[in-house]
Each structure stands twice: as structure tokens, then as C-alpha cells.
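Before relying on records like the one below, remember that each one covers exactly one chain. Contacts with other chains, cofactors or solvent are not represented anywhere in the record.
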Amino acid sequence: MAVTKIGIRQLVEFILRMGDLNASMNSQNTALEGARIHRKLQNRRDEDYEKEYSVKRIVEMDGEEFTIEGRADGVVIGDDLFIEEIKTSDPTFDELSENTKTLYWSQAKVYGAILTQDLDFEKVTIQLTYYQRPTDDIVEKQQEFTRDELSAFFDDLVEQYEKWVKLRNDWRSKRNQAARKLEFPFPEYRNGQRDLAVAVYKTILTEQRLFVEAPTGTGKTISTMFPTIKALGEEKIERIFYLTAKQSTQHVAEEAVELMEKDGLKLKSITITAKDRITFPEEVDMKPEENPYMIGYYDRIKDGLEDALAHENRFDKTVIQSYAKKHMLDPFEFSLDLSLFCDLIIGDYNYLFDPMVYLQRFFTMEDKNNFFLIDEAHNLVSRSRAMYSAVVEHALVVKAQELFQTAKGDVDSKQVKRRLSQLDNEFELIHQAFENQAEDHMVEYNPLDGLEKAMLNFNEVTREWLTKQPDTDLTSTILDLFFANNAYVKISEFFDESYRVLIQDTDDGIKIEEQILDPSPYLDASLKKGRGAVFFSATLSPVEYYQETLGSKDGLSLRMASPFNQQQQNILITNYIDTRYAAREHSLPNIIASIATLVEAKEGNYLIFGPSYAYLNQIADAFHEMHPEIEVQTQTNQMSMEERTAFLDAFRTERSGTLVGFAVLGGLFSEGIDLVNEQLIGVGIVSVGLPGLSIERNLLKDYFDDKNGHGFEYAYQLPGMNHVLQSAGRLIRTRHDRGNIVLMDQRFVTSRYLNLFPWHWKKYQKIYSVSDLQKAVEAFWSL
């Protein structure tokens, strides 16, 4: 097991932080801006000033070695010892809470405790330099400390922290013992499950990344979690992160833990629920300084942690909320603090990969005790691009200006209005550029420095102004603009050759998007915060595409066979249907006839998938007009939760007759749902699923054409084919399921697509007419 690292700041804040939970609108210093300010101040110092001085101390707590480490902003080693700690934020120094100042000084005092001993100094001068960013005001405070008093301070911190280490170690001893005894929770492995479990365990041992294509029914969740928990028991790792894109797959992980607990597993697991879904209703419209769950949060958190950890092992939304209510703690922040003491953390991808919301308590430094299980990994490609992109719109600026015109002004609002006007001017300058061109969009390869400066200036004056204003439509709009600006500026820190600035002149005004085309280096950096990772999904072909786009070119790969009999499904490719845009009207009668042939061969439930809502509605309407006797359900855009449930319930309710559901490829019903046995007996897929032509997709195409010559595949073909495979995968969910899959597009018979077929699709049939389709479908049902 790797030596556990504890950041000096983490140690100080855990023990000494008191008072209220910070307001949601913190300083708008970006990491890049903060680093710039640090360098600016450091460069003013004398030649003997050593910047970013590494400080480290190995201590023993509860019989285990820990490395406590950090970097002092500046150290001068001469006849005397001098340490500088630089902090930057927006409030004045006097406006900072006493606890915030205590934390600042305490961090520097830990540096002093370690360095006075390591460098043999009897005393040290510590300078706290505070830079107020909006005004550029600098406050410098100095204190002198002896080695003995700093040593006592440090020893006291470690002693207090040791109590929590002992709590954790006592639990881990029980956990490890139970994990070593744990047996696979089924009488026998399914075909391929043991190979997968072995591969996962070896991946952990060798500190690598593994890509696993595991078709439905292979039991990939239990086959990845079981060996990872065994490695936990052997102390190869100390913490598992199970990351996924959907709540439904988070529930699958929870169920796997529950199953293993019945066989004796002892594991503290937590599911991190999004803030807007776990916050108490009474908190929603409440300011932080008025919120009783935030006021005094740090004065109560340790009691809440001790109580919850003593009585619970599995922390889901309900359990977290119950203890948060009992101890008057904000439930979302409480869940994050609880996660520090958990062995398994289940949550969304963004808690590792998103630069705006990643869990800083775990991922500020590399830690070989972390291991990542990444479920439904095919979704991470598009999700990661969204994480590293940002959008701002002129319409929000215009709306704010209009609201200001009708609002009562004050002295402070003049500054805000002036900065808002400057931001509006930047948008107007960009808009003027469209007057000399016919296109409704432009693409820039460099950041828009003038716009970003205007955003920063606006946010600087707005932050303080907002805290003094009542809640109105104006302040709500200003707050939306504030956060949009903040996201845009923070994302701009990552701007490199893989970024484009897409500027569009829309009906609502100028829309500007910083769009990343290849976030793979940033995903790689996030993955290096752990020992290794397993990416798994039913659809990860071709694996080279996913390895490249997910920052793991040297990753291992494992492609598993389907556990089901190939005779359970009948893959039929209609070579007589052309769904390319120019041929759609002409091919519509053949599509309707083919759907009718599929569903009339056997009474039951069917799903037909199309590439877009417009095309899907055209097909559904034509089918219903031709066959009014057949019940039809059609997915609509922006369905409510009740409408989604009703759509699926229609398939899950026993009925006589035939039901045909029409749904969109890549949409709500194309993955993550289980319709078993007679709930679904056939799937039709219209088109090869290519995403619609767009400026964004074409930028992606051009980028990868330059990078590796596979622009069309990366931008259009492979995302589309993944939607096809996921949609077809709705049919066979258990060994009792049977049915036909009809692929309605002649492009499927070309090598470009046949080469992407999974192994269990290799016994496909080419169909050349509707009558041939009827014979093939009827022959399947006669078996």
C-alpha cells in the first residue's frame, strides 16, 4: 500500500476550520490568475528568496506512516529563517473572518514547525501577504515564532488528526478482514466473468488502465467491483471511485454492494447525489448567511461525522439527509465530508474529470491509493468535451441592461452598469464583424482577450454588489451572467491548440462558445490522480478510438463474448433501404412496409429508433396512418419524468395486441433501460445513426483529419454507430429474451460498418426486399 499523503492545508483545515460554511459565491480568482499574482509578488523578492519551497514531514499515527507535505510560497534561509505565505481573494483583509485568518497563519506555522527542525533554527519570522485582487491592495503581517512553540502546535494538530486516523484504521482492519474472506456472490462465474475479474485485479497490481467491452449479460458491474474490493482487502488500494453518467447505473453499483454485504462484506460506501437533488427544500431560496444548515456548519460537522460513521455503512441520499437533518448540516457538503471516510465513492464522472466541480479533497495530488471504475465509458467522450467547454450569450447582457433601466439605482450600481456596458461593447464589436460576411458564424483559433478582460472586470465589481442586494429579477439575471462569465474565464485557462472559439450570430444575438475538440490530455492528468482505471461498457469498439479520446493510448483492452446464445437474436440488414437525406422521401414506403413486416409476424412489443425527432415523427405518423389498428407511442423532445415513466410502463404492463414505440437514437430510451422477456421482442433501427451535420461536428472532423486522418469517423460515424449498438442492445437483456433486430439502411452492408459489428452480430443476414424480410422474420419465430 502506498504511503498516505496529507496536504498541509488539508490537515489544517480539517482540524481548525470553524464557523459557517462558505457562501456559494467565492473569490473569482482562477488558478491561472492566482498563480500569476503569486509569481508577481515572488519576483519582487531578493535573490536569496526561494520560491515554492517543498516542505515534507513523515509522521506516525496509529502505527502507520503518513507524509505531510506542501509548498511554502517563499523561504529565505540565511542567518535567520523567513517564511512567506501568500493568499489572494476578493474581500479586504479586515473583512476576512477570524477563522479564515487563523487557517492562513496555521498553514504557515506548519511550514515553520517542519523547517525550524529540519534546518535547525531556534525561531522563524512568518509573513502573511494578502493580495486583494479587485483593488490590487497588499497587506503584509509578520509574526515571530520559536521552534518549541511551533513544534507544540504541530504535535497538537497531529494528535487531533490521529483520533480520526484511528477511527479509520479500526474500520479498515474490519473491512480488510471481511474482504479477504469474501467469495464471489454467485455459485459460479458466467462465461468470461472470471477472465474479466482476473484482468481487473492484474490491472490494479500493475498500475495500468484497462478498456473492457462487455456485452449485456456479462455481469460487468460485479465482475469489476469484486476484484477491486479484493485488492482493497489486500491493501493494494484504499479507495474505489465508481464513476458513471447515469443515476440508473449508480443504483446497479449500490445493488452489487448490497449483494456482497449479504456474504459478509464490510464496506463504507457513499453515493454522491447532485447538490440540487439532495438539498433540503427549505434551503433552495435561502441565502447562505441565513441558512441554518450552513451557519455554524464547521462547529457541528465532526459530531455529525462521528455519529453517522458509528451507525451506518451505506450512505445513500436518504441516509445522508437523515443525519444532516439531525445535526443541522447542509446535506451536500456533509456527503462530501463523509466521503473522506468511505471505501467506495459512487458518483458522476464530473467528480473526477470536470475542472469546475472535481473533488479537490481527493484530487489535488497524485494518490496511488485511489482506483477508478468507469462505467458506460462510451458516454465519457462527449461528456468530457462538455466539461472543458463554456458558452456565453449576449442576450443575457442585454436582459441585464434592460432590467437596470427599470430598477432603482444606487451609487454602487453605477460601477456595475459601467462594467456591464463595457461587456456589451465587446459583444457589439464582435457583432459588427458579421456585417462584412455572409456566414452566420465565425471560428477563432485564439482566445478573445478583450471579452475575457471585460468579463473579469464585470465580475469583480458585481461580486461585492450582489451581496448587498435584495432578490429580484435583476439580481437573478446578474447572478446568471456572473456564473456564465466565471465558467468561461476558468475554462479559458485550458485554451490550447485543441480549442476553437465558435461565434454564432443567432436570432437571440451573439453566442460564443469555447469548444474543446480533444480533452484527452486533461483526462489523462485526472486519471493520474489514482493508481489506475478500468473503463467498461457494452460498446467500446473500436477500442483504439476510445483509448485515444479518453487519454489512455497505452491502455490494455479486453473484448468479451456475449454470454447469450446467438440464436436468441436475428440480425437482419435491409439492403433495399436508403436513408440518406436526399432519398428519405423515396424510401419512406419501404421503411413503413418493413416495420409492418417486423411487427405483424408476432404479436408483442417493439421499439423503432430513428436519428432525429423530425425524421422519427415522419416515420411514426406515416406508420400510424397506414396501420391505425396498431397501438403507437412516440418519444417527444423534453419529456417530463411522468411521461418517460408512462412510455416505459406501457411496455412493462401485460397486454394483448401489439405496441410499437418510436424513439430517438442516442435518446432517453436507447440505453440504460431493461425490457425483459415479452416486454420487448423486436427492434428496428432506421439509418446508421449519423449525428446531424453541424458546425461543431465539422470542427471536430477537421481537427481529427489533421491529427490522425479519421475526422469523419471520430465526428460522425463512430458516435452514430455507438447509438445504433446501444439501441439494439435493448432487445436481449437475459437468456430468456428473443427477437429480431432489423437494420434499415443499406450502408450497414458496407465494410465501413460491418467491421464495427460486435462478435455476436457476425451471423447477420442481408435482406433484399420486403418479401425476403417477411420470410426471414417468420422463419426466426418458427424455430
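The chain is about 45% helix and 20% strand.
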